[in-house]
Amino acid sequence: MSLKLRLIIMNFLQFFIWGAWLITVGSFWFQNKGWSGTEFGAIFSTMGIASLFMPAIAGIIADRWINAERLLGLFHLIGAGLLFYLPNVDSPTAFFWVMMANMVVYMPTISLSITVAYSSLNKANMDIITTYPPIRVYGTIGFIIAMWTVSLLKIETSAAQFYVASAASVILGIYSFSLPKCDVNPNPESKSLVDILGLKAFTLFKNSKMAMFFVFSMLLGASLQLTNMYGDTFLHDFAKIPEYKDLLVIEYPAIVMSISQISETLFILAIPFFLRRFGIKKVMLMSMVAWVLRFGLFGIGNPAEGLVLIIASNIIYGMAFDFFNISGSLFVESQTDSSIRASAQGVFMMMTNGFGAIFGSWASGLLIDNYFTTSEGNLMWSDIWLTFAAYSLVIAVLFAIFFKHKHNPDEVANVNH
Questions:
Q1: What pLDDT digit, counting tens, does each position of 361-407 carry?
Q2: How far is CA 74 from CA 11, 78, 109, 155, 402, in A?
Q3: What is the distance between the alpha carbons of residues 208 and 304, in angstroms, rounded to a whole number?
Q4: What gap in Å lies between CA 348 and CA 336, rounded to an integer?
Q5: What class does CATH assign to 3-183+196-416?
Q6: ∠ at Cα 189 (188, 195), nearest 5°?
Q7: Do the Cβ atoms of 228 and 282 come closer than 8 Å?
Q8: What does the pLDDT look like over 141-159, one tens digit per residue?
Q9: For residue 77, which of 54, 108, 105 has the smallest C-alpha distance?
Q10: Strand pairing partners for 379?
């Protein structure tokens, strides 16, 4: 089996696991368990909390003690058991802690899978910039197929979605041990406590450019959390309006939202061209402008005559997500020493899916509760989305002003060294 195919299978399963429940867990929570929305907010925050520390810790372990591919397999096998057990808990508090444990082992696998891919492609003397995006696109395909599977099988509100995810996690856990070996860097002669603990990646914050990059990583991570939290609920709420409730869009909202992931598959393939032609700053700026359009089009769209705007928003999501997340990981790879790259990817994940996710959850909840909820308890969706669009616009302007990075067309080659 070729190296590319082996990495394709890894990426497909990595995101199939997540796609099987991430978008539909809310439907399971409210319609099957009947627990409160406040408690659900706590459940959704587990991703952010786990991402504060686990990707960085896992990166340190993978850099120094346990091969990344073995750690990847171990985490997925543990996660499989937790996902299988999750529907059987009988209280929201127990659900929170089981989900937290699952996120503790799942979130670091995202950066670990990137480390495995980059390491093996480097050893094979393959150009990461041109080779990795077409491989990574199969992760998005896996997410899409999982969403469609859960939706078409009518298991969006049942425990079966977690059993599907658990089965995929078992398969990937076992498969991971067959992936190419990733070297560790024990560095036994190191005298520095920072080096001994593998914390050198955090010294990247001393570099003003990298520190600024990580700050904006956090701010963009908040935008991604807003989409994950409210996109599906936004479409579900149209069912309360008589003229919309029988539309196909309302019957299969997860499939409509999957257009976003389908769009990802196209924009991932465009990353090599855009990075070489425009450089990381302009590519990331394009992502921020895309977030403005993503939210703005939701703000003025609806499932009937405004359906084209919702579809356009989902298509634009591909640029908004990929041009930051994938390009950002390549930027980290190009700016860090090989001995701390796994740790650096963990820090990047911590800022986006950790601090960014928590900030997005907390700030949006505060705003919605205080300013965008009617006296009848209905959400003012148009105002919500337009506010999110304004936030993204401010971030884009600040990034254009404060992030200093001169594009060198030859710089992207550094990821192969």
A1: 778 877 887 888 888 878 898 999 999 999 999 999 999 998 877 76
A2: 16, 6, 10, 28, 41
A3: 48
A4: 12
A5: mainly alpha
A6: 80
A7: no
A8: 999 999 999 888 888 878 9
A9: 105
A10: 373
